[in-house]
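Input set for joint prediction.
Command: fold jointly, output tokens.
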Amino acid sequence: MKSTIRSWPLGVLILLLLCFSLPSNGQEELHYTGPFQVGNYTGEVDYTYQINNGDTLLQGPFNFRRSNLGALLDQKDKTFSITGDFQEGFPNGSWQFKFGEFESDKKTEVVGYQYRVNINGIQQEAKGMIAKGKPDGTWIISEEEIADSKIKETLFKSTINYANGVPQQSFQIERGKSTLVGRFLRNGLAHDEWTLFGEDLTEIWTFNNGLLTNLQWETGEGRRSVSVYGKSLGMSKIINLDARFTQLLKLQLSANDTDSLAEGISLILDKNASRYKKLDAILSQLGPSEFMPMFKVKVPYAPLDSLEKKQFVTIKKEYDRSSGLAKGLLENTQLNLLKRSDKEAQFLYEVVQYLDTIFVAPLQKVVSYQEQNILDYISREQLMAHLYTIGVPSKQVSITSEREESLRLFELVNAKDYEFEGPVFASLSQIAKYTRASLEQIADLLYKKVENEQQQQELVMLEKQMIVQINQLHQVIDSTEAVDNTLKGLERIKIQAEERLNSYSTLPNSTGKLEKAKFLTGCLNAFENLAHHLDSLPQKEREIHEKYKDAVWNPFMANLMDEEVKKRITLVYHDILIPDILKQVNTDLDCEKAVVLHRLLVDLHDRMLQLRDEDTAKLERKLRKEKNPKTILALFNLQSLEK
Amino acid sequence: MKKILNYSLGIAALFFLIGTIQAQEEVLPFESKYKDPKTKLWFNTYGNIRISKRLFWDAQTHFRFEESENTPWVGQIGQVYNRHAIGYIYSKKVNFSLGGVLRVNFNTDEASEDRSVVPEFRIWHQYQFAMPLYNFMIYHRLRIEHRWTQDFPDDSEYIFRNRWRYMFRAKIPLSNYKLEPKTLYVSPEAELIMQSGKAVVASPMEDLRLTTTLGYILTPRVTVAAGMMYSQGQTLENGGIYKQNWTMRFHIYFSPDIRKVKNKLPAIHFED
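tokens >
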């Protein structure tokens, strides 16, 4: 009985908790108003959303905008307003985008109860329906020039009908004074004539079931027609009518026609696509969307087979290496200087220039086509014809010297091993290999030349340095105030340095000479450093002597006197350590020893200055009977001379 | 009782004084007479032991020899001196001392049959002023001694005298431009010792000492010196009779510092 009474309120509580927690766990709509950022757009937002499994899912109306009156009056304001609806996270329903870039004339007027400011600038607008992230129904994207708050001119206007993201029926795109009209099949394939009515040019693309068969240009002067994809079409594939298609088209046409293409339909389609892209960039950040025009065309399809794919990998590899080599050589400043004085270098440099334009550049095109994903849609013959308009280049590179009016040839010795004729990708990979091998050979020759030149110059510098060093050494010894063993040590250093310089001077000009010269300058430097230190030993000793003095009041004289302190330390310095170092200088001096001894002298001096201020009672006790310089150095915490 | 004692002491002193005057009067010559000079040799140690920032212990021991009948200079021991004091360093140039002396006097009268050794006690205080001048130093020393002496006969009473001493001394470096270690210096000095006391009637000038010393500063803490002194002064017995001495002097000066290192550090310089 008792337990029933107690459990009853608990049950009610659980029931209540369940009731309250249900909406929050389910589809409760939350509202957010405040600052918001999408891409580069920052402004105030107002939207409703749901939390679904921890994710924010936009649901219901969405309004994101920005305008700044202060900025408008000050200079210019970039304003935007994006309104629409979401359903389960997808953009869905009626949408409107407005982007403006306005300046004001800074004149205000009060109309009714509002301040009115006139604005000038550009307004872009897009509106239509979206179904599950895809355009649906009629979409109108426009751009207008605004002057004094009125539409002055329509710069762009595209009107396209969609059914669930697929363009339908006819469309119209106006750009300035040009208008493109055309139509689609139900599946979005371009069909029939697409006509661009320009100011003084009419461009017509004729499609047959998505396949572009004919291009036609009509001007006041006449009419020109080019047929594109013929009827003997093998395999085909449906692709989007976008920049890639334009690129493909260019590969079909002559240079002249390519130029005509640049200004016409392809440009207007490109402009249209970029406007859709701008909207898609915003929408796809808010929820899943595919807001692109998706005009479809049919093109021949000739995918690379596995062998060709392998060959392409080779082409890419060899191209990367070749282009690196050519760039390195052409931009090498030393080489640029050397070629002025060296005929051979000049010749090789020009070969590199030739190879770079005639061999490397077409390879670069192939690689870039692959990057643009168009190699699969172009016939091999067309590719070859496009890459090498005047035919496959000869292996033999001939360079005419301007100065001497003579002809020189460059060709790899094993040129016969490279087969330029053959299936397109096989031929291209051979050309790529030949290019790389040629450039490598030239690079080898040229870099050696540069290096040799550098070495010669370096050697001259080093030898000059040696003379300076030996002279400085003489100066030190001639002007020193050092005496006895210190002076002997200096003489010894001089003799050692002279001996080494003499033996160097008898060396022949061989490959190892530079290394020897470098070693000798290092060695002379070590001797010089040691000599400088020995020369300054008397002065250094005076410095230590001064440092190891302490002012003491003498009561009998009633004055301050300098007292020598820590005599044990100064004593081992003068009587053991310095004589020992000098002994080593005078007995077995070589380059390495000179470095070690100089280091030791420097360290010892520093240590002596330090010890003056340290508590050395213990050290002094230990030094009392010590005569071995190595042990003393160890007690001083200095490295012994032994390696 | 006390009155009687004072009275009787007064009488005794009067008789003593009259007796002395009578004795001097008896022999006071018309012209001053100079005794033959005695030759002496002093070996003195001077310790100046630093015990704190401002205090030092002045410890001096002197051995004074003099001629005997057969041996000049060092024939016999004359006095052994133990002079101690606590000194106060007012500044680098000025210091004061106060202390006591125990002097052991040996009977140098070879014919005497009296006691051979008697003690002598003094309280002394001194005021020393140093002045740098050019590259040398000059010193003024005022020393006042309160002295209790007795004669060698068994029944000798202690007599009390005050001594008033002024010494002027210079120390001039010879082998260097200033007084510092490894320097030989010369030190001329002159000291006048006056005395007073009931026993002193006609001989206030006890001693005039003229000395020249050559010294060598071994380290800031040890100095040695040697010199020759001529001195003369009135004898206590007769103001007309002057004694004279020629004294060789040998000195060792040492000034150890028994403070711990950390206590020495801040105060080597005083005011500067």
